[in-house]
UniProtKB/TrEMBL annotation:
SUPFAM superfamilies: Winged helix' DNA-binding domain. InterPro entries: HTH_MarR-typ (IPR000835), MarR/SlyA-like (IPR039422), WH-like_DNA-bd_sf (IPR036388), WH_DNA-bd_sf (IPR036390). Pfam families: MarR_2. Residues 32-163 form the HTH marR-type domain. It comes from the Bacteria. This is MarR family transcriptional regulator.
């Protein structure tokens, strides 16, 4: 039987990988201890919970967060919104296009710098956001009440430390 090798993608052209395996015990270790996996699973569960709650008004949790990020006295540019939501510019642009088509946001050139875009809620966007806030509040209160130790502040601190 011939042993196969293949080159791993570009990070290290000289690195060769032989047929190897990872023990099932390692799989269980990762499943039980990986913070990234646990945070991803929790984030997906939270996202589903808020998506379900916001569905009657036609928003997803991501759209709610984006509308809330635009709820400012002066329209922001893409950079601070992108940073706040931890989104790359391409993902933010795609999300904005959907909300712009629905008439909830406007994206206009910044008069001070024509290369930048100003992002603003439309009156319809403000109306939808206002109807979403009570839904968010009640869902959020129920979620915080369901935490085992009831210490949502500590959870926020811990998650912020990871970010």
């Amino acid at each position: 039987m011939m042993r196969q090798t293949r080159t791993i993608e570009p990070s290290s052209p000289s690195l060769q990988m032989e047929d190897v395996s990872v023990s099932f015990e390692t799989t269980l270790l990762v499943k039980n201890s990986c913070l990234c996996l646990h945070v991803q699973r929790a984030a997906r569960a939270l996202a589903r919970r808020f998506d379900l709650a916001l569905r009657p008004i036609g928003l997803t949790n991501n759209q709610f967060s984006l509308l809330m990020a635009l709820n400012r006295p002066k329209p922001p540019t893409m950079a601070p919104v992108s940073a706040l939501l931890a989104l790359d510019r391409t993902t933010l642009t795609a999300a904005l296009k959907l909300l712009e088509r629905r008439g909830l946001v406007t994206v206009t050139p910044d008069p001070a710098d024509r290369r930048s875009r100003l992002l603003a809620l439309t009156p319809a966007g403000r109306t939808v956001l206002a109807s979403a806030v009570p839904i968010w509040k009640s869902t959020h209160e129920a979620l915080e009440a369901s935490l085992p130790d009831g210490n949502a502040g500590r959870l926020r601190q811990d998650l912020a430390a990871l970010a």
